[in-house]
Each structure stands twice: as structure tokens, then as C-alpha cells.
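[step 3/7] fold_predict: job queued, chain A
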Amino acid sequence: MPQTPRHRPGARTTAALLAAVAAAATLTLSAPHASAAARGAAALSVTTPANPHPQLISGNETLIKVAGRTADLRRVRITENGRDITSAFARQPDGSLLGLATALHPGTGIVTATAGRRLSASVRIKDHSINGPVFSGPRQEPYYCETTAFGLAAAARPTCSAPTVTSYQYKDSAGAFKPLPSPSQHPADLANATVGGRTVPYIVSVQTGVIDRAVYQIAALYDGSAPSPLHRDTSWNSKLVYTFGGGCNGGYHQGNLTGGVLNDLMLSQGYAVASSTLNVLDQNCDIPLSAEAAMMVKEHFVDTYGPPRFTIGWGASGGGIQQYGIADSYPGILDGIIPGISFPDPLSVADTVTDCGLLQSFFAGPAAASFTAAQRQAVTGFGNAGSCASWQAAFGNRLTPTGSCNQQVLAPDNAIPTAAQWSTANPRGVRCSMLQQMANQLGTDPATGFANSPLDNTGVQYGLQALDDHRITPAQFLALNKAIGGYDYLGRPTTARTAASPKALTAAYRDDLVNSASLGLLATAVIDQREDLDQAGFTNDIHTTQWSYAIQARLIQARGTAANQVIIENEPTASQAAAANAYELQAMDQWLTNVRADHSHRSTAAKVADDKPAHLASGCYLTTGNRINSPLTDPATGPCATLYPVHSSPRQVAGEPLAENVLTCTLRPLDPRHYPSFTRAQEAELKTVFPTGACDYHLPGAGQTRPLGTWLDYGDGTPGTAGHAPAVSSR
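[step 4/7] structure written:
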């Protein structure tokens, strides 16, 4: 059974949630969440700026902010579970007090601020182990450690913990990062960085440790003193970039790389950069767990450096999936996102993986001899014939029981022993298929022990648009759909079509695993960087352009507008990619700065839509390298459409709309009028090919419903917590 998620925070209706997100979504992690017992206008407030949800704190310390009138703060007394910690606090430029509560332990505690007899405020904290989980639910076991890949001490299961290490790098005059044994050393070839108009030595502190069973890394320029949340590092620009890595894999191991933190574009301008191994989708294809890891690492960052003005998400492919998913389902972790060559979510992509696998098998068989290369491409819908072959080659085995074991695209390793993997002879072995990583959400089939599958191609009319466009014949259409088949729960081809589990379908939509773009994403600033890999010369790439427009379509479905999303297309050249990266980081910084400075009473969603910099709009880079603003839509028009045409996909050719958010279609009886070129014999054969009817994409898909809400909770490891009532207050 799937874990019935608890809605974190608050058990509100979906309609109320949508209204709340549009009206009151927060940009930063500084919104008050404390209960105040103060009276009158002179109230004190106590908040947890490292995490806006004090019920989701992790580790033995957290930053506390006390705000109120200056006169009251001068005489305030602050206690943690009755212990006086006032001396740990320091006054900040805005007049508030910041300090660390350092004696937390798993369970519930309280921090209270009092000023005199009548003025008090408190925040109740539920603390969780630094090893997690906090809300992601039951852990995968066994879980294999890889701390030594980062130079940390060897770790033991199940926590894979290792002592934290701080190392140093410097950038040399040739532009390379080099290890620095001691930060007090200033090599002759040491370069400088410029932060806020100030020139500083380009020395980088890199902290590496273990949080949430993941290896995390935090990099920032080093100003010669230990970082402190109470006294800002002078080399830090007070902004954080959180990076995410690509792929999609079945987990069961810690991972041997993060999203990358030694990034010159960011560090040279004073940004801090953070990531963890569970934020690489090739090591963890699970959005709730990625969100949990990012939340916990960011909390640790704030406890170390202080609250950032805002946090920007960064990463491509599966890194884009995580940014979109976290922004929608776990808002507040990221304020703005810059997903590159992105996809909406793993399950929408999995449909393409299975479709391409089936089509590749068909085109390799005897019935395919009559299909020309152009006809095959028309059936797939892709701009290049090699895209389907690439999907099959890179991810075709990810739905099999062990297809993801040690098969990372980015950094292959052998963390999971072969003897520990599932087989018919070892039915209790590790089942590291892509869907198994989502078992906490999709549930498990008791008959097979595998995660329920929401994948389906029943009623899908492959090649329908190609038929309507007279690019394939009725006979070819019938042959294709008669022979296409499907997959069973072990990822083996079958003559029957694939049928989804109704439980998995319900969970996929309820839990926003199929990204609805209807929750936190509506109030998130988005710059979607689409490096156009549909171009000639990139025929073997899976990162097709239409996916940027699929998210655009979902935003329009949810809100009637995609004003919070900007799409910028560029050629796949190093020079244009570098120009796009630099521009988009600067533009996102200005966008979030504008929103932060907007003190109107409008909702954050409205501010995000309206406060874009004047120069920022959808557009593309021309072959000259110049960037132009031009509306980007699908069907595409204008100069960008000429340079970067948008194609489709197998499901779109089969009639699914651009949003591609229907996993299992609703069937309709066959109507001969829809097939005017068919003979009577072909009409009769069509009914045998689709005995229960064909997809009607004018209707919602099976199980397709609005998501339950944001911050869903699958349990924190405490016995009996998963699937019970909400445990935290409304956001």
C-alpha cells in the first residue's frame, strides 16, 4: 500500500491550498511561524530562519531570530527548554537578535523570549535526527555508503555518517581550481574575485559532511575567519545557489557526486553554493527525498553562514526535474529556479522511455520493413530520428528490477554488490528500478513485492497524427498498433499493452509526482534554459525542446498564465551556453531582488509575475551570439521558432496535448468517422486492435485529479507516523 501522506503543514482543502499559494506564498525563509503570547503592538516574535517549519528542524542546533521593539529587545531573556541562552544572541542590522540554540535533540523542545512580566513569545520545535528522515518516509535498506569518494572517512551502514571536513581551494591566474593546504597561504598565482565592488582573494572554503545519509558540500569564498551566522562573512554576497544533478536512478546507495559546488560563475561573484548526493537524480529519483535533503542541507548552511537573501536553484536535465518538483511540492526551499534542458517530472518522462522502447523494438522487427526513415520519425514526433534510440539506450532498462543498479549515466560506480541485487534466485535482493525509488508514494504490490506502476499505454494510438497528415498509411497504422505491445512489472516486453495500477495513478496525481505546476511553482520565478539539442548534429540526445513548453502548458492550465516562467533558447555551443548561464544568473538575481523590495500587499505570485527586470523576457540567442526577446509558444512563431523549431513526442503524435500530463487516458468507443480513409475491413481490424476503445484526450486521464497540497509527509522514521494526521500548523 502507498504511504498515505500527511499534509505538511495543515490539512487544508486543495482549493484553499491553491488560493493560499497564490495569495501568500513566501519568497524567503524569514516568515514568522512562532506562536506569540505577547499583547498589543509591542509583540515579540520568535522564529526559526533556517527552516520556516519549526516542526521540521534537524540536527542539534538551529538559528533563532527574536524580533520586536528595540526597548524590549534590550531587556529580553531567551531560554531553550528553560536554559538561559541570551548570551548566544547578537543584534543584527535590522535590529533583531540572532542566536543558535545548540542543545536540540530528537523530540519536542521550546525556545521562549520574555521581556518583563507581560511580554513573551515562543516557538515549539520538533527536532529530527541529522541522519533523517524528516518527512520522506521509510528508508531504503540496504543502503551503501560512498563517503570515501569525497575523501571522507569510511562510513558504516545504515547512517553512512562520517566526520565533517573543511578543505580549501584557490583559483589560479589561469582559471583553474587547485587544492590549498592552508588558507593562510597565498600562492603567487592566486587570482582575485570581486564581490560587491570589493576585490578579495579567490580562496574557497569547501565543507564536506553527511546529512540525511547524503554527502553534502558547501562552497564559499573564504575571508580569513570562520563563518558565523551572527556576523556575515565579508566575502559572501548573502545569496545561495543550490545545485542539482541529472539522470534518474533507483537509489540504494549514497552516491559519488553532488550537483557540483566549485562553480566559478557563482563563486567569483560571492555566491555560496551547496548540494548533496541525494540532489543528483541519477542517485535518487525521488522528489520528496531530494526536497528533504535540500531542506536539511540548507538549514545547516543557514546555521553556519546565516540566512541568505534568497536561494536560486540550478541544474540541468534531472537537475531541472528536481527544481520544478521541489518548487511545486515543497515551496520555500528555492525562491527562483534556473532549470536547464529540463523535463517536468520522472513519470511523464517514463512514458517517453517506454514508448521509445516499444517503438524501437517494432522498428527492428519484420513488420517495420514498409516504414521509411521519414515515416519512423513522423511516428516518434521528434526533430531527430536518433532521439528515441537514445532514450532506449540510456534509460530503457531503468524499469527492470536491476536496470538502475550501478548504472549511473554521469558517474558510474559499483556501490551495490552484484550478490545483493534482486534475481529470481534472490527475490529479497535490492530492486533498484526507477519506480522502486518512489515506493513510499506509489505503494507496493503485495503479490509481486515491486512498486506499483502508473505507466500505461492502453488505448494509445501510436502514429495517429502521422496518419492524419497522410505520412503513414492506414495499413501501417494498424500494423504498428497491433504489434506495439507493452511491458510487465519486471520491464519485460509483452504482447499486451501496459496497464497501470489504479493505486499508483491516484498517488501519482495526489502527491504531485506528475508535476501539476499548480502549487508552489505558481509563485516561483523560473528561467528555463533550453539548450536546443534538437538541432542537426545532436541526433542522439534525449533533451528535446518541447518539454519546456509542456511545463508552460501546465502553468497555463493551472493559472491561465505562465507569466512567472521565462524560456531562453540557445545553441549547443560552449560560448552561447556560457553567455546564457551568466545572463540568467544575473537576471534571476535582479528578479528576486525586485520581488524582495516589493512591499506592496499583492501576493507573491503576482509580484513574481510582474517584477521581472525590464530586459528579461522569453527569447533566444541568434547565431551571431546576440540575445533577442521574442514570445515563445508552441506552435512556435517568430525568429526564434525559425532558428529553434519545436517538435513533439510519441504521445503527442498519438493525440495527447502539449502538457503531456496524462499517464492513463480515458477511453472512448471507436468512431469510424474519425478514420475516413479506412476500408470496411480496416475498420473491423481497428476494433480488434482497440477492443476497449481508444484514448480521448479531451477528457481527464484516469485517476487525474488535483494534488493534495504542499509539504506532504510520508513519515519521519518514528514507528506509526507514516500515513496519520497532520502534525504541523498551516503555512
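[step 5/7] annotate
Residues 8-41, 723-731 have pLDDT under 50 and may be disordered.
Residues 514-644 form one domain.
exit 0
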